[in-house]
Amino acid sequence: MNCLRQLLILLVTLGFSLSALGQSISADMGDKKALTLTAAKKIAMAAEAEAAKNKWNVVIAIVDDGGHLVYLQRMDGTQTGSVDVAISKARTSQAFRRATKVFEDAIAGGRTAILGLDGALPLEGGLPLMLSGQLIGAIGVSGVTSQQDGVIAKAGADLLTAP
Fold first, then answer.
1. Are 75 and 9 in the same domain?
2. Single pTM value for the model
3. How many domains does the chain have?
4. What contacts 157, CB < 8 A, 6 or more positions away?
């Protein structure tokens, strides 16, 4: 009987401890922003408007903060090879939290070791998507020159900083 009472006291105490631990953990959790499909489409629309204005046919890829494809758009007349390139540019920006131009510039400057980075595509046209200082995803554009792809990607990314 005494042993049963001690076990019951232990279980009640453990239950309160776990409850307090759960409250502590939930209080330590941050407010994570998440990229929605609706937001991804709006970002792609802003990028597409820049591409159309310049008569540039491109593929626009939007990935989430884990590098998973959320939205893909291939404008009429864009070569199919640009599909994988746009996705790779977006994933590079997401994984390394920087513009793919950084890698392109490093290679141009002679830093060929960059080629050894797994998953780093050194072509301009990929930008991280940041919201309130948090990475929520990335945009990748392919279809014209790397510099032009970068202009289009910036038009999409800038939507997040527009007033």
1. no
2. 0.83
3. 2
4. 43, 127, 128, 129, 130, 139
Give residue 17's domain range: 1-30
Q: Encode burial over 123-152: b for 16+ CB neighbours within 10 A, e otherwise.
A: bbbbbbbbeeeebbbbbbbbbbebebbbbb
Same domain, 78 and 128: yes
Please tell me the predicted confidence (pLDDT) of residue 37: 97
Q: For residues 44 and 52, is the Cβ–Cβ distance under 8 A?
A: no
Mean pLDDT score across all residues of the chain? 90
Burial of 19 (0-12, 13-18, 19+ CB in 10 A): exposed
Q: Are 62 and 90 contacting, i.e. CB atoms less than 8 angstroms apart? A: yes
Q: Residue 78 has which token pair? A: 């864009």
Give residue-wise pLDDT tens across range 27-50. 777 788 899 999 999 999 999 999
pLDDT digits 0-9 by tens, 10-21: 555 655 555 555
Sign of CA dihedral 47, 131, 133, 116: negative
